[in-house]
């Protein structure tokens, strides 16, 4: 992989110091001459590891506010709008705001070239594959992670197909891969192991409280779960430094399984991010009880339920203003592995303590396909939780 396709941490931090993402008093991102001058100054004092750790965290709410201002500003001096490749995302809930992230067009091409080499290095694509011999022996998915029920359903339908995944975002682009040839495969696991290249991106795992309290804590020990902060080494014009992604995970060394696939020269630079998913430490009130979303999610992931996708919609009954909860479930076809639907209904009713006095305020719907779900306004994803009550 060509080192010139990525930037040094010193270059990225030098630009971050003079960028409105991190310095609120600066109106516009720096132009090419200003970036060159900043890099020359930074070269006189190479960065230390502590320089990154002392850099303030970049949180979504701050990034969204700055980007909204830059997008709406039509001044010719606004470099954010010049020569860019744009990615727009709205996340996976009905309350997500649209994010219009701009990347330098040339940086984007270099990033894709580097990541293409990374896909070859990790064995996801091979030169010997030919279009004339197409057969489904692997699937590659992106965006949201697959649940254990979804993985099991794919294996049931397609047989011994290999399931691969690419991890990326509008802010940082693609940066990690998941493959059964690289990390052990567990259909029942709620997490996914992604291999990433530290020459492409840096990942820190911080205490979960850091996503909320505004402090700059030290990373947690390797293997412990926490909030993910990402620094991209392919984003310099609009740097992504210590960006709180909203995901939860842990860091691990490259396993022996991966070393059997990846050339030894790359081993020192590769690590595994064990992604647990979105930070779901919130609850909602129904029938006087706070329902912990993480616990509800665990219930819906019960393997014997065979739930492929689900959605909870909190609404209100007019004119009483009582909270009304609707649960929509897309399940695998019934077979001996899964419980009958009535048994699933009974488990869910028990979880919510449904009785004669509140059963008019909850509804369970079994749907046939994805068209039965409400989609987020911007990302057009199935929003797992939609709050129409507040």
Major sheet attributes: 8 strands, mixed
- Report the order of strands and helices: HHHHEEHEHEEEEHEEHEEEHEEHEE
* Termini Cα gap: 50 Å
- Mean pLDDT, to the nearest integer, reads 85
Query: What is the β-strand count?
Result: 16
Sequence of strands across the biggest β-sheet: 3-4-5-6-10-9-8-7
Beta fraction: 25-35%
Radius of gyration: 23 Å
- Per DSSP, the total helix count is 10
The percent of residues in helical segments reads 10-25%
- Low-confidence segments, given as residue ranges, are none
Return the structural class.
alpha+beta
Molecular shape: globular
InterPro entries: ANL_N_sf (IPR042099)
Explain what you see.
By secondary structure, the chain is an alpha+beta fold. The chain has helices spanning 9-16, 32-43, 49-54, 60-72, 105-121, 148-158, 210-213, 256-259, 293-300, 341-351, and strands spanning 84-89, 99-104, 138-141, 162-169, 173-178, 192-197, 201-206, 226-232, 243-253, 270-278, 283-286, 289-292, 307-317, 322-331, 362-366, 385-387. The strands form four sheets. An eight-stranded mixed beta sheet has the order 3-4-5-6-10-9-8-7, with helices on one face. The model has no long low-confidence stretch (mean pLDDT 85).
Summarize the helices and strands and which ones pair or pack.
Layout: H1 9-16, H2 32-43, H3 49-54, H4 60-72, E1 84-89, E2 99-104, H5 105-121, E3 138-141, H6 148-158, E4 162-169, E5 173-178, E6 192-197, E7 201-206, H7 210-213, E8 226-232, E9 243-253, H8 256-259, E10 270-278, E11 283-286, E12 289-292, H9 293-300, E13 307-317, E14 322-331, H10 341-351, E15 362-366, E16 385-387
Parallel strand pairs: 3-4, 13-16, 14-15
Antiparallel strand pairs: 1-2, 4-5, 5-6, 6-10, 7-8, 8-9, 9-10, 11-12, 13-14
């Amino acid at each position: 992989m060509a080192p010139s396709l990525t930037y040094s941490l010193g270059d990225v931090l030098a630009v971050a110091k003079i960028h409105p993402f991190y310095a609120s008093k600066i109106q516009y991102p720096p132009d090419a001459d200003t970036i060159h001058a900043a890099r020359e100054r930074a070269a006189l004092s190479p960065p230390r590891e502590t320089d990154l750790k002392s850099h303030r965290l970049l949180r979504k709410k701050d990034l969204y506010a700055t980007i909204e201002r830059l997008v709406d500003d039509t001044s010719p001096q606004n470099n954010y709008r010049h020569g860019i490749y744009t990615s727009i995302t709205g996340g996976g809930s009905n309350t997500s705001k649209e994010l219009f992230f701009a990347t330098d067009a040339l940086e984007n091409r270099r990033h894709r070239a580097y990541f293409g080499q990374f896909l070859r290095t990790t064995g996801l694509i091979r030169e010997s594959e030919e279009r004339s011999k197409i057969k489904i022996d692997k699937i590659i998915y992106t965006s949201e992670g697959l649940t254990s029920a979804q993985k099991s359903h794919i294996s049931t339908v397609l047989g011994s197909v290999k399931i691969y995944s690419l991890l990326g975002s509008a802010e940082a682009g693609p940066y990690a891969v998941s493959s059964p040839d690289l990390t052990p495969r567990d259909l029942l696991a709620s997490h996914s192991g992604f291999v990433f290249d530290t020459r492409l991106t840096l990942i820190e795992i911080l205490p979960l409280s850091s996503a909320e309290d505004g402090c700059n804590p030290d990373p947690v020990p390797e293997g412990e779960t926490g909030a993910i902060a990402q620094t991209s080494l392919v984003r310099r014009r609009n740097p992504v430094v210590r960006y709180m992604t909203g995901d939860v995970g842990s860091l691990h060394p490259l396993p022996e399984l991966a070393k059997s696939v990846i050339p030894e020269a790359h081993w020192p630079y590769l690590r595994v991010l064990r992604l647990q998913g979105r930070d779901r430490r919130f609850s909602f009130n129904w029938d006087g009880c706070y329902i912990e979303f993480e616990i509800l999610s665990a219930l819906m992931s019960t393997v014997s339920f065979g739930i492929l996708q689900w959605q909870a919609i909190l609404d209100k009954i007019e004119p009483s203003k009582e909270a009304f909860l609707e649960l929509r479930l897309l399940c695998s076809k019934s077979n001996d592995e899964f419980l009958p639907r009535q048994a699933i209904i009974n488990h869910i009713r028990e979880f919510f303590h449904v009785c004669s006095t509140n059963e008019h305020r909850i509804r369970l719907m079994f749907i046939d396909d994805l068209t039965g779900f409400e989609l987020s306004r911007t990302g057009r994803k199935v929003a797992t939780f939609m709050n129409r009550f507040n």
